[in-house]
Amino acid sequence: MKVDAVIFDMDGTLFQTDRILKLSLEDAFERLRAKGTWEGETPISMYREIMGVPLPKVWETLLPRHTIEEREKVNEYFLERLIDNIQLGKGELYPHTIETLSYLKQQQLRLFIASNGLPDYLTAIVKHYRLDRWVDEVFSIEQIESLHKSDLVNQICEKYGVQNGAVVGDRLSDILAAKDNGLLAIGCRFDFSQEHELLQADLVIEDLLKLTELLPFSKTLYPSLD
Questions:
Q1: In a structure prediction context, what are the per-residue pLDDT tens digits for the chain, which is 226 residues long?
Q2: H helices then E strands: how many in the chain?
Q3: Helix (H) or strand (E) holding 203
Q4: Is residue 40 classed exposed, middle or buried when 0-12, 13-18 and 19+ CB atoms within 10 A define those classes?
Q5: How far is CA 201 from CA 9, 99, 155, in A?
Q6: In the chain, where are the structural domains located?
Q7: For domain 5-16+92-225, which architecture applies?
Q8: pTM value?
Q9: 79 in the Ramachandran plot: left (φ > 0), alpha (ψ -120 to 50) or beta?
């Protein structure tokens, strides 16, 4: 079986979110401190643990005692800071992202991004790094009422008729999204990944460039995928 489409996660897979996460989160919580609605340190470690879940769940976890309106305001400011930091060049793609995407596109694979990030944030990354040179379409979790990555990947599969595809991501939501849609699950052992989650992936890589060796998959190397 040959894979004809690859669906990538964005945060922690293509984009090194950690580069701007701390900066942006510190700004957001400093604003809360100035308003007298937060005391103590910024919960960066907690955010890292839940990285990959939709933002409403992020703020519900980080700010359990705040109102929905307060969380929405923090979220808006946080996104503004993220986008500003991207445009200022403070972020960075993972090593070999461009080489990998370019190679896969040359192999005539269809490439997509399925992310829990919001549209404006994803657009900022795509524009800054010109990812649209290789990526056919970017999908945000905001397009799905359920906020489930599996449903987002299903939308891509239905729209583009993907049957023999792979999902590449660093968290369990990416792995399950692949399996729920009958696709190959490729886990990335990157910044936010967790070993007990990667155990559920079909394959695990430590460098995106490894995909240029593995894709498209051949029957000789992976007879179990036939």
A1: 688 999 999 999 999 998 998 899 999 999 999 999 999 899 988 988 888 777 788 899 999 999 999 999 999 999 999 999 999 999 999 999 999 999 999 999 999 999 999 999 999 999 999 999 999 999 999 999 998 999 999 999 999 999 899 999 999 999 999 999 999 999 999 999 999 999 999 999 999 999 999 876 433 333 333 3
A2: 10, 6
A3: strand 203-205
A4: exposed
A5: 14, 24, 21
A6: 5-16+92-225, 18-87
A7: 3-Layer(aba) Sandwich (3.40)
A8: 0.87
A9: alpha
Q: How far apart are CA 187 and CA 197, in angstroms?
A: 9
Q: Please count the residues of the chain.
A: 226
Distance CA 162, CA 104 (A): 16
Place of tokens 């989650």: 197
Q: Are the beta carbons of 9 and 185 closer than 8 angstroms?
A: no
Could you tell me if 140 and 118 are in contact, meaning their C-beta atoms sit under 8 angstroms apart?
Answer: yes
Please state, in angstroms and rounded to a whole number, the distance separating the CA atoms of residues 26 and 33: 10
Amino acid at 209: L
Cβ atoms within 10 Å, residue 16: 18
User: Where does residue 151 rank: exposed (0-12), middle (13-18), buried (19+ CB within 10 A)?
Assistant: middle
* Tokens linked to 48: 């890292």
